[in-house]
Hints:
The complex is a heterotetramer, with 2 copies of chain A and 2 copies of chain C. Chain A is an alpha/beta fold. Helices cover 35% and strands 19% of the residues of chain A.
Amino acid sequence: MARKISMKQAINEALDLEMTRDPSVIVMGEDIVGGTGSPGEDDAWGGVLGVTKGLHAKHGNRLMDTPLSESAYIGAAIGAATCGLRPVAELMFIDFMGVCFDQIFNQAAKFRYMFGGKAETPVVIRAMVGAGFRAAAQHSQMLTPIFTHIPGVKVVCPSNAYDAKGLLIQSIRDNDPVIFCEHKNLYGLECDVPAESYAIPFGEANVLRDGGDVTIVSYGLTVHRAMEAAEALAKDKVEAEVIDLRTLSPIDWDTVIDSVERTGRLVVVDEAHPRCSIASDVAAFVGQNAFGALKAGVQMVTAPHVPVPFSPVLEDLYIPNAAAIADAARRTLAPTGTSPRSIAA
Amino acid sequence: MARKISMKQAINEALDLEMTRDPSVIVMGEDIVGGTGSPGEDDAWGGVLGVTKGLHAKHGNRLMDTPLSESAYIGAAIGAATCGLRPVAELMFIDFMGVCFDQIFNQAAKFRYMFGGKAETPVVIRAMVGAGFRAAAQHSQMLTPIFTHIPGVKVVCPSNAYDAKGLLIQSIRDNDPVIFCEHKNLYGLECDVPAESYAIPFGEANVLRDGGDVTIVSYGLTVHRAMEAAEALAKDKVEAEVIDLRTLSPIDWDTVIDSVERTGRLVVVDEAHPRCSIASDVAAFVGQNAFGALKAGVQMVTAPHVPVPFSPVLEDLYIPNAAAIADAARRTLAPTGTSPRSIAA
Amino acid sequence: MTENPFPLDRDDLLKAYRIMRTIREFEERLHIDFAKGDIPGFVHLYAGEEASAAGIMMHLKDNDRIASTHRGHGHCIAKGVDVHEMMAEIYGRSTGACRGKGGSMHIADLSKGMMGANGILGAGAPLACGAALAAKVRGDGGVGISFVGDGASNQGMFLESLNLAAVWNLPAIFVVENNGYAESTARDWAVAVDSYIDRASGFGLPGVTVDGTDFFAVYEAAGEIIRRAREGGGPALLECNMVRFYGHFEGDAQTYRAKGEVEAIRASRDCIKIFAERVIEAGVISRAELEAIDKEVLDLIEDAVRAAKSAPLPAPAELLTDVYVAY
Amino acid sequence: MTENPFPLDRDDLLKAYRIMRTIREFEERLHIDFAKGDIPGFVHLYAGEEASAAGIMMHLKDNDRIASTHRGHGHCIAKGVDVHEMMAEIYGRSTGACRGKGGSMHIADLSKGMMGANGILGAGAPLACGAALAAKVRGDGGVGISFVGDGASNQGMFLESLNLAAVWNLPAIFVVENNGYAESTARDWAVAVDSYIDRASGFGLPGVTVDGTDFFAVYEAAGEIIRRAREGGGPALLECNMVRFYGHFEGDAQTYRAKGEVEAIRASRDCIKIFAERVIEAGVISRAELEAIDKEVLDLIEDAVRAAKSAPLPAPAELLTDVYVAY
Ligand SMILES: Cc1ncc(C[n+]2csc(CCOP(=O)(O)OP(=O)(O)O)c2C)c(N)n1
Ligand SMILES: Cc1ncc(C[n+]2csc(CCOP(=O)(O)OP(=O)(O)O)c2C)c(N)n1
Ligand SMILES: [Mg+2]
Ligand SMILES: [Mg+2]
């Protein structure tokens, strides 16, 4: 039975279902319960934006507030995962990875390989990503390219409530470490979501719109901008195929390549900075592996090579928008050789 | 006056010259003096591989050993830089960035932007990078893509003693934060280096070899593998142009594009993992901005998507080698459309 | 006029009062304007905690540096950052202290020795060590002060810094602003030790705990610690026990607090009221003098808000500037 | 036969001796073979520190977990990791504990409760908290033990873990193996506090300091702490003061040490000699019994080296396997 619920509710529901199903699932993070040790109400916050609200009432001590010590508790989640639990640790904002990255990239990501295949680390690290919240440079980053670069972790970034639920359930059941990226500006977005439990496999992109003229690939918030761009292009009789990657590592190369083999044109949209980004990753892979199919250079539309600004007027310019995406698509349709060099300051 | 000295000596000399010239230059790191508080000789280590050996005798307390607290002392170097010093902090292995990344990417990199242009942070973070030392997964990483992704830091990775000296002097004089990556397997490599002081500007790639058939772009250790590959190719009458990027952020797009516009073919070699790498970055940029010049898909030769293995037999397979580079070059010369999909597990 | 029993002369008492009152009105006004929807982003108010900022900063000059927290407005004002520039920054205007690029969580003014509010907990501690190191290398007698909340006192960066400052014998001071909560979580649960003096001792640092709602207690303890640091006596930790009048951030419903808690602390632990009563009772300052300051402060804040609202927004080109000195 | 004055029966005394002797011979042999150039990479020897590993691990079962350091061979052996597999690992062979992919710094055997040596200082502490958490959630009475050097005791991850373990009341134990040096740097310089008991107190943890060259002192202190943790009494810190017989890593010229220092500690602070003298003197174990063990251990090591050297190298395809369970 599907109802319209928000991405925030979908994530809450996925946690609830998995905690109910599997007693080895525990959930921890700063204020994810809220009010621990404080004199007022229990379950006072349910996370800084209320994503875990209500779960403590149902699952009790399997939800744990933590002291403000990301290395210690993210590391504890990782250590517990190697001992048979399935912890879901919330790193409030992905921007905080700088204080606990060692536990993620040198420990969780490498155990299996360093130990010759003899370890499993089924940990999920949930974190808010993305700009548009007027939260400035240290609370608005995307950072997906950094995690995608690292072998041994998987990287997930849903664009809607349906995917968020199914991908989070898969993340919890998955036997490898997963970085689960939640775009804070999508939390309120509703769509049809079945009440039942379901898992969406990793490495399967979603074709949101068919089209034969140009392929637009993205993930997270900018998927919606890509759809807007596709609608604008349709008015000009340009039919864009829009692909939502959903998981960045593993990534569904087949769907991307198959589409480009039909359209011959590709735009990759990424809310991350341009250098060594998901955009450049996809563009390069396609350029190497489907060069013969390309009728024009792959166009990248990314955030600029600058930190996220605070002022709303600047922040709104920072995030790739539909107009820029449509323009990039049009560039792929123009005679080749005319595209200007474009890497923002 | 040029003499043959090793990259290790060249780095030592650059530090010595700048400390002599500018009293605001201080140098800190774990055991960079060595033996602090210990009963034996002073200046006992000069760094774990002896790079800073002898500098303490000359410059005294402007070289400082630190406790084993990377966030605290790297952060202190950054804080001191905003107060007018020019600290050079050694992060022994770049792999340790996970315990101090916040100070680098959220603090040093963002101050100038967050503060509206009102801060300067002239700090240099020196760190060993790269594989081949049989030092396993946590002491052998490249990680250059992660820093290159971050706006606000500059990233330097010399391939030889001459460049190391000139680029380190530039790094110390530069007014922005610089991540200075020293490939540990190049420390012993000697070349002609003038005794005098000289600075090599950032963003100027070095064309090590001219050739009209294919362009090979790399940096660091794999530049030497690229040169070997070029020699092998020359035997087949294929003339490769070899470009050493030297600095990854800023990066010299002009030299790369100009070369590709002549050769029409590009191989990018990167010791980092493939996803969101320097290789994909360069390939994507060229694919977007010089598509018309390309006669074949840009080929990437990278380390695989796996941690660095310990066993020498595996580690030797891990690092991109000359044969793989030459093969990639040959692929660009084959009829298009035949290149196989290639992203190692 | 009676004799002055305080360690500050009349001018400095008036100055301290003006700082505290300015902080208070700044925050009260933000609280109102945020609720109206005028202000974007995360805003953490310092109301109730003014005596800490004022009591410490009264000892500092521009070459002394402070590294602040996410709750930084009070530190900024006490360290001399321009109130108009602060307000404009919070409104995201190009006349802001950071030209609108930083916002509430990143206000800085290095020319005043204010190294920045900080969105990352604990991050200021290493930076303040760096300021202290620079002062030590230059021998200019400056100090570096890091502010940290009770919650952030569990962050590795902060803990490492205690040891580093002690090992290097830096003129660094760590002020723990203990307001009892980290977001919604109680300090008594999250910090495993009862006394910050013990935590400081664990790193070889002298520690002092004071009632952070008592300006004079803060002022005297800070004075002693700062003097010692300037003279080469090394780092120290100062805990100020204080109260937070508003929620963790604006919009916080605060259901984790006890019923009546906020009313009670506003009534009995308002550091500005306590200060005012003391100086009036001692006969050193008159109520009228304080009220005159109150009025000036209200005008200043009103003027700052008006100016901020009518100030230009950053031009689109500003998006791409100020990333590097040169690139 | 005389009465046994020790807290272990004869079998356990012989077992403890065998563990220590095995570690010692393992390390002595690596020292020789490394100098010959047989062994690749960084190798950090545990020789001289055996009583710590043995004294603690004698209390543990396979469901108790330990997180080790870069100097991990002793912990591995004492926790029951197979010596042949260890040696093969250090030689980079496919028969190694990690199939040659980890090497000296990453030997692990989760089936024995050994969570891995670790190339990142302080990283084991959060992991051991995780093991302790898992034991607590399951209620299986297990403990998680983190080993850390004196140098690494200044790492933020370690310090945060002390607080976390106390706040969550975990069955976690932090063993500081204080051998006086971090690489070449003196502990007394780099750790700002004189006593680790004070550092533990700074996080609300009970701390105990013992002579780490005295097996029985370690054994008794560890036993008490571990028992308490198993019973829900929470975490603790144990400092073992010990000596390092070799350099920081193989190849270290050790000019930072005092003249004669190594000879002196080998003569007077050899934990194995001290143990042997005590048990022989007490008349509980005979010299001949110990010598028999010595011989068996030598044979074991010789056999392990021979097997390692003739074991197959990893096949090229191994480069790409074992990154994910499924991808
Ligand atoms: C490294 C890091 N972790 C978490 C947060 C999210 N966060 C912001 S403020 C806060 C609570 C801080 O409490 P405290 O240090 O006591 O300061 P207070 O807000 O009480 O002034 C948290 C958890 C952050 N900004 N940085
Ligand atoms: C985070 C991190 N920083 C630095 C190093 C480099 N390093 C390896 S061992 C070592 C000294 C460790 O000293 P201690 O903790 O006392 O252990 P010991 O070697 O004496 O057993 C250093 C600095 C590292 N491996 N990890
Ligand atoms: Mg607080
Ligand atoms: Mg040590």
